[in-house]
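REQUEST ID: PR-0412
SUBMITTED BY: lab tech R.K.
PRIORITY: routine
TASK: structure prediction, single protein chain
INPUT:
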Amino acid sequence: MAIRFRQLQAFHAIYESGTVTGAALVLGISQPGVSNLISQLEREAKFKLFARVRGRLIPTPEAGVLYREVDTVVRGLDHVGQAITDLQNKQGGQLQVASQHALSFGFMPRLIAQFAENRPDMSISFQSQYSSKIQEWVVAGLFEIGVCEAPLLYDELDAHPFSLEMVVALHPENPLTRHSVLTPEVLAGEPLIAMGPDHMSHRRTREAFDTAGVPWTVRVHSHLFKNVLSFVQEGMGVAILDPLLLQHEKAGGFVTRPFRPRIMMDNIVVTSRDRPMSALGRAFLEVLLEEIEKSCS
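STATUS: complete
OUTPUT:
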């Protein structure tokens, strides 16, 4: 039996609309084209599918049985077609992004939410993690895009570097807020909230104080910028932090000041060098890099 899917589509469309005219509109073909497809299907099936009653096509009992089988197939292929269209338009699929902790509390969720606004069928896989783990995940194919701190650890990755100028966060009631710019000399004796000794920001801040010949006092060490900021909000000291974290912190409880000499935070956006990205991933990467460029300018 040489039944073609287009014949089943015509049958399905007539069964649901009740007219050849309605089926033609659904399928985007002429009314004679629909009638011809139904005639072909009836010849193959060797039984009538519709009877014309007062200008309307009434399904035969055999057509009712056939419809129940055909409905799942036709709707399933319609879903496949819609999925292909969504992928072509970058509307469907899964966005897979991993980010360092500092950007995962405001910057990345906001950007992903904006990207997803007109993509209701897109699913999202997002995780925050330490930078070395993020690079490992992208190499392994668990995520398409990673945003993390430098340096690049794997030759299998492509990197888009960007640097952010760190700023000082202080409690609003700290007397040092009277200064428009803070330096090691101004911060002499002020308790600092800092990342651990191995972190880039810790090393570069220490170098700035050492070069100025100013001793520094670290009151609290922590492993996340978000935790460091929480101690600042409690009035326990000042901290030199990633500006993107601070821009998206809604709780308040701090003010910021520039620090001199400048302390830069080196970051990278990583993707796999060996594995092709999805159209959705490429579209988000473009948006991400544009937003980062604006934040760095």
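NOTES: The chain is about 45% helix and 20% strand.
REVIEWED BY: pending
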